[in-house]
Amino acid sequence: MIKCTLGQLAKMINVENDVMEFQNIEIAGVSFDTRLIEPGNLFVALIGDANDGHKYVDIAFEKGAAAVLWQKDVPNPPKNKPVLQVEDTLRALQDLAHSYRKQNSAKVIAITGSNGKTTTKDIVAAVFSEDYKVHKTDGNFNNHIGLPLTILAMEETTEIAILEMGMSGKGEIALLTRIAEPDAAIITNIGEAHLQDLGSREAIADAKLEIVEGLPKNGLLIYPGNEPLLVKKVSSLKQFNTCTFGETSENDIYAIDITIEENGSNFIVPGLSDEPLFLPISGKHNIMNALAAILAAKEFLISPTSIRAGLKSVKLSNMRMEWHDGIKGTRILNDAYNASPTAMRAVISMVEKLADEREKIVVLGDMLELGEKEVEFHEQIGEELNPDKIKYVFTYGPLAKHIASGARLHFPDERIFEFNDKEKLINVLNEKVEGNELILFKASRGVKLEEVVNAMLVR
């Protein structure tokens, strides 16, 4: 984590008051939440829509904060305390992170995309950890506040920083990449998430490509070569190096001889190894994420042996492709952290193609932030479900009912169940499960479908 004196800190950002009296005070780490603050932290008083961190400055000092960033237009800063006044506390936090990143010798890999950002981050971290000291984004700390905090939490001895970059609108990735100045950037895919805000997949592609604004001229952009929107746009951007991954041999890296089972995926990468690589995550879409990680690893001269070992050791963040033992001998796949049409199709396809004799049940909730075509997207998911592979379709939520509507084109009514009440869903699911089925749970995070998952687990 960042460790410096207030005198040093005042040279890293624009501090508008005289801190000479406190210049030798040392800070270690940064926090904006008094519930999580640790002794020695710099407390940043952020102003949000619903709360103002300046109200908690006294508590921060009581809990051991070494100093505070205070926005100068807020009245009554504490007297005789190490308070650094700045024009804007959020901007100061971001500027501090950028300055610390510039001082640190770590190489930075930035990751964005409509789906698969966190999974790809976890895969990249596992592979790079074989040869380097790695720091990565924790949880979903991937926005204009979380990314600066992630950088400032980085140890000075870090060799590789893996930073996830999320967005909800235009300009957000540009801000994050300017703060992080990555040496390499990965775009996982272009899906439908954020259509509500951006309006089209082309606009989403433009927003994701903002990530290159922070790349140096010798930097590397890794992107899916089977995505026409990106291929067209990247071809006009020649100031950095590029590599592609995908399903076909036209890409710089691709996979063959793919086999997918519950405990993971085996695949061969031509030119890397004649022996299959093992990724302990199921699904072709996750193999694509692994290919992006392999390209990054090759750029940083990581050996095939280390790549193989790193892939084998991958562990995912919570509620992403989690397998559990369920009631009556069922197996439960909880992938309910987030959802978009692209992500939902990918995991349903994986479940349908699993070499497994279990009967399959899908429990699908609302996909949020899809804009004016949200009903159509849900209906399409239902229409694409295979009645020869799926035993029952359960939906939860006012949008997911359109998945049920689409499924009725191929499924008889007695195999489709719609709910807006989780208790009723749980009760009927309990009734219909006979034993030994595989149950997939998938929905956007706001649906909180994990509440249903937890009710179906073995206690």
From TrEMBL:
- The superkingdom listed in its UniProt entry is Bacteria
Recorded hits in InterPro entries, A to Z, give:
Mur-like_cat_sf (IPR036565), Mur_ligase_C (IPR004101), Mur_ligase_C_dom_sf (IPR036615), Mur_ligase_cen (IPR013221), Mur_ligase_N (IPR000713), MurCDEF_CellWall_CoF430Synth (IPR051046), MurE/MurF_N (IPR035911), UDP-N-AcMur_synth (IPR005863)
Q: List residues binding ATP.
A: 113-119
Q: Which UniProt keywords apply?
A: ATP-binding, Cell cycle, Cell division, Cell shape, Cell wall biogenesis/degradation, Cytoplasm, Ligase, Nucleotide-binding, Peptidoglycan synthesis
Enzyme Commission (EC) number: 6.3.2.10
User: Catalytic activity annotated for this protein?
Assistant: D-alanyl-D-alanine + UDP-N-acetyl-alpha-D-muramoyl-L-alanyl-gamma-D-glutamyl-meso-2,6-diaminopimelate + ATP = UDP-N-acetyl-alpha-D-muramoyl-L-alanyl-gamma-D-glutamyl-meso-2,6-diaminopimeloyl-D-alanyl-D-alanine + ADP + phosphate + H(+)
Q: Any idea where the Mur ligase central domain is? A: 111-297
EC main class here is ligase
Q: Where in the cell is it found?
A: Cytoplasm
**What range(s) does the Mur ligase C-terminal domain occupy?**
319-445
- SUPFAM superfamilies attached here? MurD-like peptide ligases, catalytic domain (SSF53623), MurD-like peptide ligases, peptide-binding domain (SSF53244), MurE/MurF N-terminal domain (SSF63418)
Q: Name one GO molecular function term.
A: UDP-N-acetylmuramoyl-tripeptide-D-alanyl-D-alanine ligase activity
State which pathway it belongs to: Cell wall biogenesis; peptidoglycan biosynthesis
Question: What are the Mur ligase N-terminal catalytic domain coordinates in residue numbering?
Answer: 26-100
Q: Which family does it belong to?
A: Belongs to the MurCDEF family. MurF subfamily.
Fetch the PANTHER family from UniProt: UDP-N-ACETYLMURAMOYL-TRIPEPTIDE--D-ALANYL-D-ALANINE LIGASE
Function, in words? Involved in cell wall formation. Catalyzes the final step in the synthesis of UDP-N-acetylmuramoyl-pentapeptide, the precursor of murein.
What is the protein's given name?
A: UDP-N-acetylmuramoyl-tripeptide--D-alanyl-D-alanine ligase
